[in-house]
Amino acid sequence: MRLLIVEDENRLATALARGLSAEGFAVDVAHDGVSGLHLAQEQDYDLIVLDIMLPGLNGYRVCDRLRAAGDETPILMLTAKDGEYDEAEGLDTGADDYLTKPFSYVVLQARIRALLRRRTRAAAQALRIGDLTVDLGARRVEWAGTEVVLTAKEFAVLEHLALHAGRVVSKADILAHVWDFAHDGDPNIVEVYVSTLRRKLDVPFGRRSITTVRGAGYRLEPDGGPHA
Hints:
228 residues, five-stranded parallel beta sheet, 21% strand, elongated
């Protein structure tokens, strides 16, 4: 899943981005309200971590403009302020949750997971594609009841394919949702991860669940794929 952090404290923004990237998220960072609003409007995010005290546009105004435009992306507001009126103002502008600095990174992670669970619950927390089960909440993968252990980034690639099971997903789309906006590495990294997923998901079970559509991308077969 792809997150946007809008935070003007460079050290905090960098630390959050590094930690969340290690958890398998693709993370973009903006350091002022104008840039944050622009990214939020131009890119497709699963969640926005939004500081209130920002240069340019404060977090209240960014949130208000996104909601006025019909953007329902979950927003977790951060602020150094403390008080029920500040919290109420943040929630009234359309934020989904509120966290006061200083905060525990563990608590931030828990809030993010909770907001993402709310967003995905309607679309089914556990995706079942034939014999393959991808549990978005537990971040667990099973094939016919047998657990398949994946790294955070492997899970992120499979998750994106599973959310679009039966449809072709381009390499560029996978890059955009699994790697951050600033990724300037080899785009063939997607092929590397798809190859690894095939070794873990298909080879041990004699299946062909991830197919390559030449010139278009990859497709996770809706029936779990034929036997090899």
